[in-house]
C-alpha cells in the first residue's frame, strides 16, 4: 500500500464532515444484525491482514470529500444495478459514527467498511455484460479482485476524483444513468426502470478512453471514438428478427479490398432455384461460384457436379461465393474483426437502404452507409486498393477495439426516453434477472 497511516485528525474530519450532511441525503439505518457487505468483507479483511493497517480512507488530511462521494455513489447504486447500495451506504455511515470514539477497533472497522463497500460497488459495475461475446479476453472486465480495487484506490493522488472516474464507467453509461438518477430524485420514484438497467448492462464494457468503434443495433448507428469522445457516426443496416446482430467485443486489425461475398444458406437455396430455371448464365452473370469447402484455398466446383435439386430443396448444403463486381453484396470494402460468429462490417451497393428509418435488413452482419469514410478514419489515409485481385488484406496502423451492442435508452435535454425494442432484449429474462443483483 501507500504507507499512509490512519490519523486521528483524519478520522475526525472525515466522520464529522460526512455525518453533518443533511438528513435528507442520508440513507435509512441498516437493520440490526444484518450486513449488506458480506460478499466483500472476507476478501477485504484478508487484504488488510496482508498489506497492514495503512489507511485508504483515513490517510491524513480531510478525506470527508471521498467519504461523502462514496456514500453518494452507494445511494445511487440501484441505478447501477446494485440494489443494496443504499443499505450499504447506511452501514458506512454507522461505522463512521462509531469511529468517532477513536477506539482502534472502531476505526479499523470503519476503514474496512468503506473498503468493502467500494469493492462491492466496483465489482457490480464491472460484471461481464450478459450475452456479450468477449472475442478478445482483455476486452472483458479487468481489475475486479478486491486487492486490485483497493491498491488502485490507495495509489490515487485524489481519492474522491478516483471514485468519480471509476463510477462514471464511460461517457455513454454515465449520461444514461445520471439522467435517470436526476429524474428519479426530481420525481421521488427511486425504483430504476428495468429497461434502463438492461441498457446499462449492455454498454458498461465500452471503454472510457482511447480510439474505438461502437456499433449500436438499437439506434442503427455506428460511432467512431477518439480519446473516449465521438468524432463521427453513420447509419448502418443490422440484423433482422431471427438474424439479430450479436453483441461482441473484439479488435479490428485489417481491412479487405475487393472482397468475395459468401451467400448464407437460405439464399443459397434461392440461387439454386434460379439456376434450375436459368442455368449457367444466371450464375455467370452474377459472378457466383460453387466452392468445395469453406477454407481460404478452396477449389471451385464445376456447376454440372452439383445436385441443384437437392440444394434447392434444402437437402444438401453447399458454399456459393460471389466474385468482386459492381453488384457484389460486400461492395468494395470489408472490415473483419476477431470473432467465431462470422460477423463483420462491410460496404454495400444498396445505398437506398440508408434512407429508411427501419434498417433491420441484414442476416447479422453490418452494412455501412459510407465504407470509404470509415476506411479513411481507420487508415488515416484514403482507402485505395493496391490492386485488382480479390480479397486483398491491408493491415491497420494499429488494432482498433470494436464493440457491437444494442441500446434503446436515450438521454436528451435532461430527459430519458426509449426507442422501440426491435430485438426484444429489454425484456429478455436472462438480462433482467441479472440486473439489480
From TrEMBL:
**Keywords attached to this entry:** Cell shape, Cell wall biogenesis/degradation, Peptidoglycan synthesis, Signal, Transferase
Q: Which residues form the signal peptide?
A: 1-25
BP-aspect Gene Ontology terms: cell wall organization; peptidoglycan biosynthetic process; regulation of cell shape
What the record says about family reads: Belongs to the YkuD family.
Which InterPro entries does this UniProt record tie to the protein?
Answer: LD-transpeptidase_YkuD-like, LD_TPept_cat_dom, LD_TPept_scaffold_dom, Transpep_catalytic_dom
One Gene Ontology MF term: carboxypeptidase activity
Transmembrane feature ranges: none
The residues responsible for catalysis, as annotated, are: 346, 365
**Domain L,D-TPase catalytic, which positions?**
211-405
Judging by the UniProt lineage, the source's domain of life is Bacteria
Q: In which pathway does it act?
A: Cell wall biogenesis; peptidoglycan biosynthesis
Q: Do you know which PROSITE patterns this protein is assigned to?
A: LD_TPASE
Instruction: Name it.
Output: L,D-transpeptidase family protein
Amino acid at each position: 500500500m501507500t504507507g499512509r497511516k490512519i490519523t486521528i485528525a483524519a478520522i475526525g474530519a472525515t466522520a464529522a464532515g460526512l455525518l453533518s450532511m443533511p438528513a435528507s441525503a442520508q440513507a435509512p439505518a441498516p437493520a440490526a444484525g444484518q450486513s449488506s457487505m458480506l460478499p466483500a468483507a472476507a476478501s477485504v479483511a484478508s487484504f488488510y491482514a496482508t498489506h497492514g493497517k495503512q489507511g485508504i480512507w483515513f490517510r491524513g488530511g480531510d478525506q470527508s470529500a471521498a467519504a461523502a462521494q462514496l456514500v453518494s455513489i452507494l445511494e445511487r447504486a440501484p441505478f447501477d444495478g446494485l440494489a443494496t447500495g443504499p443499505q450499504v451506504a447506511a452501514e458506512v455511515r454507522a461505522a463512521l459514527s462509531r469511529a468517532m470514539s477513536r477506539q482502534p477497533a472502531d476505526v479499523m472497522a470503519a476503514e474496512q467498511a468503506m473498503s468493502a463497500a467500494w469493492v462491492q460497488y466496483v465489482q457490480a459495475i464491472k460484471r461481464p455484460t450478459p450475452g456479450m461475446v468477449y472475442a478478445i479476453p482483455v476486452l472483458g472486465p479487468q481489475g475486479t479482485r478486491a486487492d486490485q480495487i483497493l491498491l488502485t484506490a490507495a495509489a490515487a493522488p485524489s481519492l474522491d476524483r478516483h471514485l468519480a472516474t471509476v463510477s462514471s464507467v464511460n461517457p455513454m453509461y454515465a449520461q444514461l444513468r445520471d439522467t435517470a438518477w436526476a429524474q428519479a430524485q426530481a420525481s421521488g420514484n427511486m425504483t430504476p426502470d428495468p429497461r434502463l438497467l438492461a441498457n446499462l448492462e449492455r454498454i458498461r464494457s465500452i471503454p472510457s478512453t482511447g480510439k474505438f468503434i461502437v456499433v449500436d443495433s438499437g439506434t442503427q448507428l455506428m460511432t467512431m471514438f477518439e480519446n473516449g469522445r465521438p468524432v463521427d457516426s453513420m447509419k448502418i443496416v443490422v440484423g433482422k428478427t431471427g438474424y439479430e446482430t450479436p453483441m461482441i467485443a473484439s479488435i479490428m486489425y485489417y481491412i479487405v479490398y475487393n472482397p468475395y461475398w459468401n451467400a448464407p444458406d437460405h439464399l443459397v437455396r434461392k440461387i439454386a432455384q434460379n439456376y434450375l430455371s436459368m442455368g449457367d448464365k444466371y450464375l455467370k452473370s452474377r459472378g457466383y461460384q460453387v466452392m468445395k469447402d469453406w477454407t481460404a484455398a478452396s477449389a471451385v466446383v464445376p456447376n454440372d457436379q452439383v445436385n441443384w435439386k437437392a440444394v434447392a430443396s434444402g437437402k444438401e448444403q453447399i458454399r456459393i461465393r460471389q466474385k468482386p463486381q459492381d453488384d457484389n453484396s460486400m461492395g468494395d470494402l470489408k472490415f473483419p474483426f476477431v470473432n467465431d460468429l462470422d460477423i463483420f462490417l462491410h460496404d454495400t451497393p444498396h445505398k437506398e437502404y440508408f434512407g429508411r428509418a427501419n434498417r433491420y435488413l441484414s442476416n447479422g452482419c453490418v452494412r455501412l452507409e459510407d465504407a470509404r469514410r470509415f476506411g479513411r478514419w481507420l487508415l488515416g489515409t484514403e482507402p485505395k486498393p493496391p490492386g485488382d485481385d480479390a480479397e486483398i488484406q491491408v493491415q491497420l496502423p494499429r488494432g482498433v477495439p470494436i464493440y457491437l451492442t444494442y441500446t434503446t435508452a436515450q438521454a436528451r435535454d435532461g430527459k430519458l426516453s426509449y426507442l422501440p425494442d426491435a430485438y426484444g432484449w429489454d425484456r429478455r429474462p436472462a438480462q433482467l434477472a441479472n440486473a439489480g443483483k
